[in-house]
Design goal:
- By secondary structure, chain A is an alpha/beta fold.
- Chain A is built from 13 helices and 13 strands.
- Chain A has a six-stranded mixed beta sheet with strand order 5-6-7-3-8-9, with helices on both faces.
- The longest helix of chain A is centred in the middle third of the chain and has 18 residues.
- In chain A, 39% of the residues are buried.
- Chain B is globular and about 60 Å long.
- In chain B, a hairpin with a 3-residue loop joins strand 1 and strand 2.
- Classes of the chains: A alpha/beta, B mainly alpha.
- At the A-B interface, strand 1, helix 1, helix 3, strand 5 and helix 4 of A face helix 1, strand 2, helix 2, helix 6 and helix 10 of B.
Chain lengths: 343, 314
Amino acid sequence: MIVAEGLKKSFRVTAKRTGGFSAFRALLPGSTSQVEAVRSVSFSIKAGEMVAVLGPNGAGKSTTIKMLTGILVPDAGTATTLGLVPWQSRRAVAKRIGVVFGQRTQLWWDLPLSDSLDLVRHMYGVPAQRFGENLATCRELLDLDSFLDRPVRQLSLGQRMRGDLAAALIHDPEILFLDEPTIGLDLVAKARIRDALTHLNQSRGVTVLLTTHDLADVARLCQRVLLIDHGRVVHDGGLEALRTQFGSGCTLVVDLADQSASGKAPSSGAHEIEKRSVGPLVVPGATETRSEGNRHWLAFDRREVSASDLIASVASRYPLSDLSLEEPDIETVIAGLYASRTE
Amino acid sequence: MSRSLTASVYSRPVMVGSTSVRWVSPAVGKYCTIPPMTTQITFLAGLYVRLAIARVRGRMGYRVGFLLMILGVFVANTFEFVALLVLFGQVRLLGGWNSHEVALLWGMSQMSFAIAEAFGHGFEGLAPQVRSGEFDQVLVRPLPVFFQVFASDFQAQRIGRFLQGATAVWFSRSDPASLPWQASNWTMLTFAVTTGAVIFFATFVLGGAWALRVVDGQELMNTFTYGGATLASYPLDLFSDPIRRAATWVLPLAFVNYFPALALLGRVAPDGILPFGLSPITLALSAPIVALMYLGIAVVVWDRSVMRYQGTGT
C-alpha cells in the first residue's frame, strides 16, 4: 500500500532578511543553510493498517507525509503509494487518497459545509448517487447534521475538523493521511474523530497513516507506531515495544522500616537518631533521586540491574517495610526521547 | 466516459457475516478516469463556473459588504481619474495627448486590469498561502495545479473598476472635437481590452510563480502588476527610452492599450517608439499574438515554479 525506501529530503533555509528593500534583496544570494528534514526513512505499510507516526516537532513527520502524498519530491530514495510514485503520478494518487492537515482547512470559509462537500464532489467527479451514500455515512459517522448548513467560518474547531474529515472521505479514498487530526480538540471531539477513524478502518478497510502528539490517539487507534527522530525511523512496532526499547529507566520506591518502633535495639538515644535519619541509600546499580521521611526513590536502568537483584541488595543492607516498582509511562518515555534530542 | 459506465464500477455495500456492513473498495482509478482532452476541458470549464459561483456566493454572504466593496473600488478609481482631470486643468496636453485621449488610455487599462484581476486573483493572493502551507492542499487534489489556483478566487467585485474604466472611455468619446467611431472602432476596442486583460492576467501568473519561489516577494510582484496598470494608464510618450523598451519587449504593456489607442485615435507616435517601424494598426492587430505568447511563457514559468516548489518545498 505504502512503501518508502531511504527517503531523504533537505531544505535550504535562507536567513530571513528584514528592513527596507527586503523584496529586492531576496533576489541576491544570501546566507543559506541546509536543513536535513528527512535523512533516511524506510518502512512499508500494508492495506488496512492503522499506523501512527510519532516524533518531536521538526523530526520529519510532515515532510515524510508530504513526500508520500506527492506534495514534495525527495532528494533521494523511492516511495510508492498504491503502487504509484506519488510525485510522478500526483493526480492519479490524489484521486485515491484522502489528506487532512489538522492545522489548515480545505473547506470554503464563507460557504456552508454542505456546499463545500458538494464542491469537493465535483472536483473528484464523484457520481451523485455515490456522493449521496457517502454523505449519509459521514453525517451519521461524524454527526454533521447540526452544523451542515452553517458557514465554515462559524464552526468550532472540532466541528471544522469533522467537516474536513468528511471532505476527505467523499471520494472513497483507499488511504487516509492525517497530519495531526486531533490537534487543539477537546476530549469529546477527539473521541469522535477516533471513533470515526476506527469505524472507517474496520468497516471500509481504509488504511490510515496519521501523525500526532497525542499518545491517547495512538493507544486507541494504532497497533503500530513509527517513531521518527532526526529524520530517521528509530522505532517501528507496537506502543508497548517502544516502552521496552526506550523505557529501561525504572524507579524503585523503598519504605524503610521504622527502627525505633520495632524496639529491637534498645541502645543509646544518640544511636537512635542516627538510625532514623539514614542518608542517601547506597545500593550498587541505583542512585537515590528523592527521599521523604522513610521513603526513598531509587532510579535504576533495567538493562544494567534487574529489579529482583536490586530489591535483594536493598533488603540485605536496609530494613524494609514496603517497596514498589514504578515503570515509566509512555509519555515519560517519549518526553525523555524528545528532550534528549536538544542535547 | 459515460456516467452509467462509471457508476457501474462502484461496488454496492455487501453484507459480510451478519453484523458488519463492508464496503468493497471500488476499482482502481474509479471516479476520474483520464478522459479525452475535450471532455477534460468541458469538465474543467464546468468546474470553473461552479467554483466561481461558490466564490461569489461566499462573498454575497456579506451582501452589504460586497456591494460596498464594488462601490468602494468604483469611487477610489474615480478619484484617481478626477485627479488626472484636475491635472489637465493646469496643462492642456500630457506628452502631446489631450485629456480625452488620455481618458481612453486610462479607461482601456482599467477595464483590462479589472478583468485580469477578476480571473487572476488566485495567483495574486498566493504568497500568504504558500507561507501558511495552504498551497499544499492544492497538490493533493486530482486537478491541474494551474487550474486550481486560477479557479480559486474569482472576484466579481472587480466590476467596480471595470465600470469606472468604461466611464472614462465614455468621457473620452464625449469630446466634440473627435471623429465619430465606426462599428470597427468599437470592435477593435473590445478586442484590445480583452487582449490587455490576457497580458495583465499573464503578469499575475508570473507573480504567482514568483511567490512560489520567493516567500516574501509580494512587494516586488505588485510593482509589476499594479505598477504596470498605472504605467499603462498614461501615454508612453511621457516615459524615457528604457521604460518604453521594457514596456514593449519585456512586459508588453504597450500592447495593452497604447498601440491600440494610437490606432483608434489615428495619432502619430513619436520616433522610435513603434517596434520595427510597424504601423499602430498592425501592432494593434498583432497584440493578441503577443498576448498569447506572453501567456504561454507565463504558464511555462509557472509549471517550472510548481516543480521547483515540489523539489524544494519553500
